[in-house]
Amino acid sequence: MGVGRMKRKFQFISGCQWLRPATLLRKASFLLATCIPILIFPRIVLSLASIPSQPSAVISGRVVDAETGEPLASVNVFLAQTTLGDATDRDGRFSIPRIPPGHYQLIVSRIGYEMQKVPVHLAAAEHKEFTFKLKLKILPGGEVTVVAKFPKDWKRNLEIFENTFFGLTDFAKACKLLNPEVLDFKFNPKTGHFEASAEQPVRYINRALGYEVSFILEHYTLDMVNESLYAVVKDRNVVALQNAGYRCKGILKFKALPAKDEKEAKAWEKNRQTAYFGSFQHFLKSLWAGRLKQQGFEIFETPFPHAKTEHKIKIRDILHTTSDPGEKMLSFPGYLEVVYKKENDPICERMQRQVLDQMNISDDARQSLFIEKVYRECAHQVSWIKILNKGNIMINQQGQILTPEADLEFAGYWKWNSLAESMPINYDPGIHH
How far is it, in rounded angstroms, from Cα 66 to Cα 79? Predict the structure, then answer.
């Protein structure tokens, strides 16, 4: 991603608290969270070193109504954050072939029924069968009140949702909701608290990466204090959004789009690599493989984001072996600062330029010095991570987070790991970059 490219992706985890940076003129001082698929990061078994391909696995089975035992058709059965899945036929049967060995989260979902999530480990050439019994979803008690689907401010609320859900990046501009009518919003202008919910998966198309995506929205809140939420989002004001509290979690399902020609296919692949490299997903995979330096990462221990004191650390300081050879524990006190040196930070540049505009600097010499400072301080992508719930998370060789409901706080660049930049975990960017 070049200097002019705004980017960064999803992925992952929840608990997006916010901190006020010591100064706006420090590297990557924006702190808006991105929408994060909070569940597990299933990843295919592809290390950063070249490995021979392994026979693929298969998942198959049947889905029935828990009360009647009758087969359920049109149930979505898929591996979270992948392009791998199937829909049940009229007999309730499904089959997902050609699955690379690894750990996954199997999702079973149908409108009107309670969703099921099942962790699955697949060995090479393994065939696993399941029978799922889905229970009808119990709606909240009380009388059902029919209200207008599109109240007065619904379109304005939709604009807020889209700009934060997809993020403030160039790739976000290429995303379009396919079923916005499934969304409901609540907004309190006095407190600045904004909520979104959906009883059906939120579907969107990403023309930058070449995917149609379904997102099961489990939680979405945005808090903006002492600012006009509508104005800030409409103006895409990065400086103001840095202090916004944003939390979003859910489950992704990808479907690759057919390219209309070779030119589009090449453009998609280029954008997919741009989205992947430097991402949290890329970092975890490099961490397990012991190749942080080779992949362009450096890690530091720091008490809080933007702290003046930081201590460079090694992989062995934060990644520990366990009794299970297929799992390692990632643990560190305070915050882990991650610097990715192979790409610049265009969002930092954008934020600093907005500061420049607000300062109304007109002198050409002063402006040139300021811009030089911006490019120097935004030369690398800088992110901070804090493990909130248990102080540690379990990961595997594929870079998958195995801890259910893992709760991480992000600051800096990965706060912008938006859905517009999210990639399926069975995407292989190759080992040469």
Answer: 22
Q: Encoding tokens for residue 424?
A: 């399926």
Residue ranges in 166-297 assigned as alpha helix (H): 229-234, 238-241, 262-276, 280-289
What burial class does residue 260 get, using C-beta atoms within 10 Å of its C-beta: 0-12 exposed, 13-18 middle, 19+ buried?
exposed
Furthest CA-CA distance within the chain: 77
Within 10 A of 357 (CB to CB), how many other CB atoms are there?
A: 10
- Cβ(417)–Cβ(9) under 8 Å? yes
409-421 pLDDT, tens digit each: 888 888 766 789 8
- DSSP codes, 95-119: EEEEEPSEEEEEEEE-TTB--EEEE
Cα torsion through 153, 158, 159, 165, rounded to 10: 150
Structure tokens at 289: 């493989």
Residue located via tokens 């945005």:
222
Residues β-bridged to residue 411: 384
Q: How far apart are the C-alpha atoms of 377 and 161, rounded to whole Å?
A: 31
Please state which of the ranges 173-187, 249-263, 334-348, 371-385 shows the lowest mean pLDDT.
371-385
Cβ atoms within 10 Å, residue 343 = 20
Q: Are 332 and 317 in contact (CB under 8 A)?
A: yes
- The domains of the chain, with CATH numbers, are 57-134 (2.60.40.1120)
Contact 258, 265 (CB under 8 A): no
Burial class (CB in 10 A: 0-12, 13-18, 19+), 378: buried
pLDDT in tens, 334-354: 999 999 998 766 666 566 555
pTM of the model: 0.77
119, 104, 210, 200: which is closest to 423 by C-alpha?
210
**Strand ranges in 341-407 using DSSP code E only, listed in sequence order:** 381-387, 392-395
Q: Which residues contact 111 (CB under 8 A, 6 or more apart)?
A: 199, 200
User: Could you give the strand order of the β-sheet that contains 335-340, starting from the edge strand earlier in sequence?
Assistant: 311-312, 297-302, 335-340, 381-387, 408-412
User: Which residues 6+ apart lie within 8 Å of 144 measured at CB?
Assistant: none
d(CA 32, CA 232): 12
